[in-house]
Amino acid sequence: MNKEAFVISQFTSPRIGDDGAVVGEWVYSKDIFAQNVHFKREWMSLAQIAKKSMLVNLSDAIAMNAVPKYALIGVTIPRSYTHAELKELTGAFLATCKAWGVELIGGDTTSGERLTISITIISHTKNPVFRKGMKEGHVLAYTGRIGESLKGLKTLMRGGSLGADSRFMKPVLKAAFFYKAAPYVSAAMDISDGLGKDLSRLCAANNLGARFTCKHTKAQLCSGEEYEMLFSFDPRYERILRRIAEQTKTPLTLFGKAVRGRFRCPCKEHHF
Amino acid sequence: MNKEAFVISQFTSPRIGDDGAVVGEWVYSKDIFAQNVHFKREWMSLAQIAKKSMLVNLSDAIAMNAVPKYALIGVTIPRSYTHAELKELTGAFLATCKAWGVELIGGDTTSGERLTISITIISHTKNPVFRKGMKEGHVLAYTGRIGESLKGLKTLMRGGSLGADSRFMKPVLKAAFFYKAAPYVSAAMDISDGLGKDLSRLCAANNLGARFTCKHTKAQLCSGEEYEMLFSFDPRYERILRRIAEQTKTPLTLFGKAVRGRFRCPCKEHHF
């Protein structure tokens, strides 16, 4: 067990294990976005970093069928940063909050060697979607196209650069689709660590396995930070979900079925 | 303006500026507790660090007259930490949560050079106490004895060591007193940066100054991380507040009065 998993395994609240913790109609999610773990400084502008750090947190809320309302931001900032750089960071936080109708209600800053952003998103839902809820025979699906984020990461690691709109730089959250789809969804999470890894978690949460019904390349299976929605549904909802996908112009891939057994992720853990 | 203050100044929600942000009956507070900023690793055990990081966050909730209910913990952990060390950390988080009736509902971990703990506390109140609300003529008071934390810090910086119960190692929160006192309190915050600095913030929030009615040493004025309650109240409540202090065995010092003007903190900013 890696150290991250070990620490989380020590915390045993039944509210832990989803993309967010549900308390009444509120959902709380918290993700850290850290220099040299999730990004290198030379890859992205501070505005891009701030925006992506918000989006990866908003993605958790969406995966729970919750509407993000409030944010708290904790930032560890290198002492060398100028006021102009700080303004670029805070400006991007505020712009992203505004674009998503989120009110930034608090936070904390401290100094440190590397830029680290820890965000808490408070979101609202009357009908949360959990990782648990998938049944044998349910269809497995994801939104969008996957694989590009890992390709982008590899380009960056080779010293190349990426366009501002590439997936690694700027996830495109499928909120419009997912909020409409949620009533027909039995279980969901976002794809943050790769379809393979996240599917293994979704399956484990339901004591089920998965059978793929269409071929996927290793790049598609193992590309993390896609921030697409991974979910399952009862086959009788296929038509309505396809219609919602069409209405919201969201690519939708039905790629498998939940079966008895266990699903093992075929990807190596990757860190840079 | 220092960088921390600059970043916070860019965030302009009216909910920002107190020890926590109030949304309905919920209060959200978030504080970062970071190695080489708030502590050095050799000064304290991991259990002490984890416990103090929780207490400084719980202190914010108490200062708002809110009862802590849930916690989210984000930790940046050096790769060198062993499983035994991780267990010491998580064990202390859980024990502190248990002692305060707080449910740990989520979190995130990542690796990094220095141990950094970012905690979000979700607390409940029907009657929040804010920094704003103090009027001219109100009495200024604080709980406990102050000054010891700075003395402890100086001892540590000279290479000395501290007892496990010394203030710097383990703040003693005055929850029992403050929840009873809150109905009679006009404005409050906790003393995290020193009486002088925090009083200047309390005064600024109310466009008032302060006149001291008893002498304080520089050590008392400038000792941060006391986590005592600093508050103001209408003089007609003096008797009842003294009685609550007696009932809860809480030292209470009435040290001044809110007056017209402005209060300037006489302390230097200290970093180590």
From TrEMBL, chains A, B:
<feature type="binding site">
    <location>
        <begin position="107"/>
        <end position="108"/>
    </location>
    <ligand>
        <name>ATP</name>
    </ligand>
</feature>
<feature type="binding site">
    <location>
        <position position="38"/>
    </location>
    <ligand>
        <name>substrate</name>
    </ligand>
</feature>
<dbReference type="InterPro" id="IPR010918">
    <property type="entry name" value="PurM-like_C_dom"/>
</dbReference>
<feature type="domain" description="PurM-like C-terminal">
    <location>
        <begin position="136"/>
        <end position="234"/>
    </location>
</feature>
<dbReference type="InterPro" id="IPR036676">
    <property type="entry name" value="PurM-like_C_sf"/>
</dbReference>
<feature type="binding site">
    <location>
        <position position="108"/>
    </location>
    <ligand>
        <name>Mg(2+) 1</name>
    </ligand>
</feature>
<feature type="binding site">
    <location>
        <position position="19"/>
    </location>
    <ligand>
        <name>Mg(2+) 3</name>
    </ligand>
</feature>
<dbReference type="Pfam" id="PF00586">
    <property type="entry name" value="AIRS"/>
</dbReference>
<comment type="similarity">
    <text>Belongs to the thiamine-monophosphate kinase family.</text>
</comment>
<feature type="binding site">
    <location>
        <position position="60"/>
    </location>
    <ligand>
        <name>Mg(2+) 4</name>
    </ligand>
</feature>
<feature type="binding site">
    <location>
        <position position="192"/>
    </location>
    <ligand>
        <name>ATP</name>
    </ligand>
</feature>
<keyword id="KW-0418">Kinase</keyword>
<dbReference type="InterPro" id="IPR036921">
    <property type="entry name" value="PurM-like_N_sf"/>
</dbReference>
<feature type="binding site">
    <location>
        <position position="60"/>
    </location>
    <ligand>
        <name>Mg(2+) 2</name>
    </ligand>
</feature>
<feature type="binding site">
    <location>
        <position position="193"/>
    </location>
    <ligand>
        <name>Mg(2+) 5</name>
    </ligand>
</feature>
<feature type="binding site">
    <location>
        <position position="31"/>
    </location>
    <ligand>
        <name>Mg(2+) 2</name>
    </ligand>
</feature>
<comment type="function">
    <text>Catalyzes the ATP-dependent phosphorylation of thiamine-monophosphate (TMP) to form thiamine-pyrophosphate (TPP), the active form of vitamin B1.</text>
</comment>
<keyword id="KW-0784">Thiamine biosynthesis</keyword>
<feature type="binding site">
    <location>
        <position position="29"/>
    </location>
    <ligand>
        <name>Mg(2+) 4</name>
    </ligand>
</feature>
<keyword id="KW-0479">Metal-binding</keyword>
<keyword id="KW-0460">Magnesium</keyword>
<feature type="binding site">
    <location>
        <position position="225"/>
    </location>
    <ligand>
        <name>substrate</name>
    </ligand>
</feature>
<feature type="binding site">
    <location>
        <position position="60"/>
    </location>
    <ligand>
        <name>Mg(2+) 3</name>
    </ligand>
</feature>
<comment type="pathway">
    <text>Cofactor biosynthesis; thiamine diphosphate biosynthesis; thiamine diphosphate from thiamine phosphate: step 1/1.</text>
</comment>
<feature type="binding site">
    <location>
        <position position="19"/>
    </location>
    <ligand>
        <name>Mg(2+) 4</name>
    </ligand>
</feature>
<feature type="binding site">
    <location>
        <position position="31"/>
    </location>
    <ligand>
        <name>Mg(2+) 1</name>
    </ligand>
</feature>
<feature type="binding site">
    <location>
        <position position="131"/>
    </location>
    <ligand>
        <name>ATP</name>
    </ligand>
</feature>
<dbReference type="InterPro" id="IPR016188">
    <property type="entry name" value="PurM-like_N"/>
</dbReference>
<keyword id="KW-0808">Transferase</keyword>
<dbReference type="GO" id="GO:0009030">
    <property type="term" value="F:thiamine-phosphate kinase activity"/>
</dbReference>
<protein>
    <recommendedName>
        <fullName>Thiamine-monophosphate kinase</fullName>
        <ecNumber>2.7.4.16</ecNumber>
    </recommendedName>
</protein>
<dbReference type="InterPro" id="IPR006283">
    <property type="entry name" value="ThiL-like"/>
</dbReference>
<feature type="domain" description="PurM-like N-terminal">
    <location>
        <begin position="17"/>
        <end position="122"/>
    </location>
</feature>
<keyword id="KW-0547">Nucleotide-binding</keyword>
<feature type="binding site">
    <location>
        <position position="190"/>
    </location>
    <ligand>
        <name>Mg(2+) 3</name>
    </ligand>
</feature>
<keyword id="KW-0067">ATP-binding</keyword>
<dbReference type="Pfam" id="PF02769">
    <property type="entry name" value="AIRS_C"/>
</dbReference>
